[in-house]
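Task: encode each sequence below as structure tokens.

Item 1
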Amino acid sequence: MGLENESLEIIKKIQESRERKEDYTLRYSYYSRWWELSGIEDLAIMPPGSSFKYVLQTSPFDFWKATIPPESLIGDENDEYYGEHGKEEINNMIKTMKDVINFIEGEEPHTVAFTSIPMPSGDLFELVGLAKISNNGTSFVFCNDLDYLKYLKSKGL
């Protein structure tokens, strides 16, 4: 079984545990397994079909000036690059971020934004999702590039 599918199975167990109102200790063991699956502290592998492959949970960050608000990414139907397809894609990314953070923290993020990183091919950029919750300020980075997230971890994020 691939790590993405194993991630999905663990998430299902967490959801079932919530529905049965089982002791939090058991549910916490599932969460721990989900976060440990990648072998990298605070990095989880998203299940198949997600808008992003990975999510990195970080300490709070407050520098949002270099980020792109979602509404700036969504073009109108005449937009050459994004158009209606892009709007749906961005909205799916936002939904994924909100759902995952709500799943982990029990609350939706108060801030959701994007940034972009160059893809290894050098001819395209990839969107990276950023989000932060109110409760304790925990921040999250959603990305498809594992090396980028490893780099962020190496820099102490």
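Item 2
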Amino acid sequence: MRELRIPYAIDIENNTNISAADIAALMEDLRSTIRLQATAHVRTRARWPRHFVCPMCRQPVYPHAPSFTGRRHFWSHLPRGSLECPLESKRKLTPDQINGRIFHGRQEGDAHRNLVSLLVRLADADPSVGPVTTGVYERPTDAMRDTFPYGRFPDVQFTCGDSKIVLEAQLATITLHGINGRRAFYDRMGTSLLWVMRNFDPTGALRASVRDIIADQGGLLFSIDNDLIAMSESDGIFRLRAWTYSGEGDDACWGHHIVPIAEAASLARPHRWADVFKGRWLTAYRGCHFFTKGAPDPYDLLREVAYEAGIPDYAPSPAFDCTLGLVRLLISLEAGEVAGSGHPYLISIANSFDQHDGYRALTLVHMAIARWQPALLARSSMQLALKRARHKLQETGAAEWGRKSVIGKMRDVLFPDWVLGSGTAFAADQMSAGLSSPGDGRRSASHARPMP
């Protein structure tokens, strides 16, 4: 077996090395989006980009997934990124060149056109479906043009209730570039994108592109078959078969059920609890203090977070508890605007995080600012706040709050896209598991955790 061209990749966010052998474990679950994230350029509600680079040339790489059992996983340069790398022995193709070779310039063979015509016919017959179009160019909105200068030609597009739906008939191979591009565009448009296959069989070998589509839809795949066609034609209700991959490890398995098109659309564009909650928070407290008259009680919202995080007996003490301020800070940093304070600028709530016992979240706050608002770290008042927090840790001998503390558990449920690797200080197992209230977890000053 020949040596791998790229022995490992560097995960930029977590500063760790991921070998080719590690890829198999990362992708064992069909819902893993690591390939999609590695090739994504735009952050969307569906996912955020992850950056892996070649150890030789520092150009972006992504994990290659074999279609057949027993084949090796390996790292490969992204198109356009490997021309000068000594580890590469041949010239790579651009995404457009790859698409051109795969599809001979077009993807629309007879089988594809027949599937599109079938979907149009079934949608047209359903009274709950609005006007159906096929292959009609959809322009990006003015607000999108900087990111998406060009629009899309969706296979099938229509409305159903309040939802705008696009169906992409998928029979041939599609590149990661194509999947990410469509997902980012339609997410920004507020459109439900459904990938639809004909006669899907999960027991057969899955091409890498099919696995990527399954991951893109969170372990979900839609298909149409003869039984569904007959059922839909008999009563005029457009249905799809929704295949779901669920469970963990050896217990993971496929299931399927038949859903009308409106339910399929809601499955394809689910609303995560974290996104809904943070949307409510921003709507309620944008531009005002969270104790403004008429605004929702912030402690009621905080208790919702605690319940979601598995802390049902959480009882904050408004006079001393700093958790509310830390949650406000994290949500505001991610959103890029202050929500829950009368101060108009993020620096004004960031440089006071150490009040009460907030200094015990030093590493967490530093990581959050570095992730979302790194420019704040250059501000002298921010550096002073970090210095104060370090001094308080040394002076009191208190342990920093870790992953199993109240704020640690709240961080996990509020920011599911913020993945902490095992190498990060805040994720380290040695951080105390019992730090659930401000009075817990004392230790000597010489063991206080330093700034990351």
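Check on item 2: The first strand starts at residue 8 and ends at 11. Residues 8-92 form one domain.
End of task.
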